[in-house]
Amino acid sequence: MRAIQNISRLMYLGCLLARNNALEVLEALNVPIVFYWPLKLLESKNKHLGLGERMANAAISAGPTFIKFGQALSTRTDLLGPEITAEIAHLRDRLPPFSSERAKKTIEKELGSSIEDLFLSFEDVPIAAASIAQVHFAITSAGEEVAVKVLRPNIEKAFLRDLELLRWLAQLAVRLRPSWKRLRLADGVEVFAEMVRMEMDLRLEGAAASELRENFKNDPSYNVPKIFWQYTSKRVLTTSRVSGIPIDKITASESHSYTPDQVLESSSRAMFHQIFRDGFFHGDPHPGNLMVEKDGAISVVDFGIMGRLDIQSRLYIAETLLCIFTREYERAAQLHLDAGYVPEGTPIGAFSLALRSIAEPILDLPPNEVSMGRLLGHLFHITETFGMETQPHLLLLQKVVVIAEGTARTINPSLNLWETVQPLVKDWVKLKSSPEQQVRDASVALRRLVIHGPRLLAKFEATVSGPADGMRSEKRRRKLETNQRLTSALWLITFSVWVLVVITLLG
In Å, how far are 6, 226, 265, 299 from 419, measured between CA atoms? Predict the structure, then answer.
């Protein structure tokens, strides 16, 4: 029954692609024409828009899930290529609003009080309506100006249905084309599912905003709205109201206390801090989500999509970019091998040559045309040649950089984003590679080992021992010997780490 539902839904989506003249995407994915040739009868010859734009229109017609999925696809240069994904990146999830009455009913049910008791005023006309939720301005009973985000009715059911289809398609694609296994399509769908799950639990979005706000508490140039937890639940999120104008609307004017270049410097520095310093970054920094206050400070909204990078990934990205922009291709190739992003045995010379082939055409452009986002896109695109596994967290990062560069160049067409952030990246890599930092990292690892070691040993013991009753003496003896060896190994490792720390400090 499920297969029939998936097939019927798939046929409907195919018709939407055809009506929007977007069947070329199936050709780009090398889907055999036998699967969709009847749909070509529905296409018109009017294809004045780019393929990515036509795909975006089809996604809007298909509804919320596919708007979000289209946004996720905008990171997959390995699937669609950089040109198509660049066009899809402009996809925005604008949809007609649902009624304010339904929004109020949701708020009352979730918060357990009437609108009149919760708010002094509540604006019926939403300030924004997207695929998952819409936002209303209000004033709390305490007189605080807030923005109230409310989930669309029955949105969870619609997403569950379409996620089932996407999982089915991912499995089917790998069966039909085993070579696509390296693309980790199923993992990509699960990453997307996790992203959607977070967006549909507004408590998680509130927690993400709270973490970002904490990270920038000492930076007055980058504001994250306060979360009003007493007005927040799974389907309702209330934050302080943000004022200002979209970042792409700022102009040079004597009436402003800031210049566009100052705003760009602040936003670039904030992006750097999020990606490298914190490893936690806003995943959808389009101009509608970045507002410039009267004093030039940037206020950010919408925390449904957030990215996270571990320290190893951050170092890999930073060092790779530094090497490529200085044309140290062999070193960049070695970094890929060390990070495990390239299969063992990959000829370093061949991979270095591939890096040169994608970097040189970009680095030879005029400075204002050099694109860090484009470079990252091409870098991830060569996975096909060398069998690299797709890294979903890095793809989101690439999307963020592309959006940031596009926004920056609408404000200042001569801007080179890399020149702006390069000194920050270089200093950060130097700091993280210093002996002092390595000692601190070793100390943290040691502390975790000491704290969690006994628990891990106990867990191991419980796993290997089984029920105590009926255990034979020989089994008890073997278990005791194993535990003794593990304990000895643990203390040996601990002692060795401390010795290394002392040697590093003395050196």
Answer: 48, 33, 11, 24
Cβ–Cβ < 8 Å for 78, 384:
yes
Number of separate domains in the chain: 2
Structure tokens belonging to residue 420: 């702006």
The 10s digit of each residue's pLDDT in 313-356 is 899 889 989 999 999 999 999 888 887 777 778 888 988 999 99
| Residue 108: per-residue pLDDT | 97
Distance CA 241, CA 176 (A): 50
Long-range contacts of 137-144 (CB under 8 A, 24+ apart): 137/241, 138/238, 140/228, 140/231, 140/238, 141/117, 144/228, 144/240
Domain match, 442 and 425 both: no
Q: Which helix (H) or strand (E) holds 121?
A: strand 119-122
Close Cβ partners of 65 (under 8 Å, ≥ 6 residues apart): 158, 159, 161, 162, 163, 196
Same domain (yes/no): 323, 405:
yes
Q: Are residues 314 and 426 in the same domain?
A: yes
How far is it, in rounded angstroms, from Cα 4 to Cα 56?
A: 26
Residue 284 among the catalytic residues: yes
Task: Characterize the bridge pairing of strands 222-223 and 298-300.
Answer: parallel
Measured at the alpha carbon of residue 185, what is the angle toward residues 179 and 186, in degrees to the nearest 5? 120
- Each residue of 283-298: b (16+ CB within 10 Å) or e? bbbbbbbbbbbeebbb
Cα atoms in the Cβ-side hemisphere of radius 13 Å centred on 259:
4
CA proximity to 408, closest of 247, 211, 213: 247
What distances in angstroms separate CA 439 from CA 297, 341, 452, 501, 507, one per listed residue? 37, 26, 20, 6, 12
Same domain membership, residue 447 and residue 375: no
Label residues 40-69 b or e (16+ Cβ within 10 Å = b). eeebeeeeeeebbbbbbbbbbebbbbbbbb
Which of 78, 93, 201, 284 is catalytic? The answer is 284
Residue linked to tokens 């708007």:
67
Report residue 411: phi and psi, to 5°: -90, -45
* pTM given for the model: 0.73
**Is residue 16 situated within a structural domain?**
no
Query: For residue 113, which phi and psi values (nearest 5 degrees)?
Result: -145, 165
Of 349, 413, 406, 350, the residue nearest 377 (C-alpha): 406
Domain boundary among 384, 404, 432: 432
How would residue 463 be classed by pLDDT, with cut points 50, 70 and 90? very low
- 44-58, 135-149, 164-178, 378-392: range with highest mean pLDDT: 135-149
119 vs 403: CA distance, rounded Å: 36
Which helix H or strand E contains 102, and what residues bound it? helix 100-111
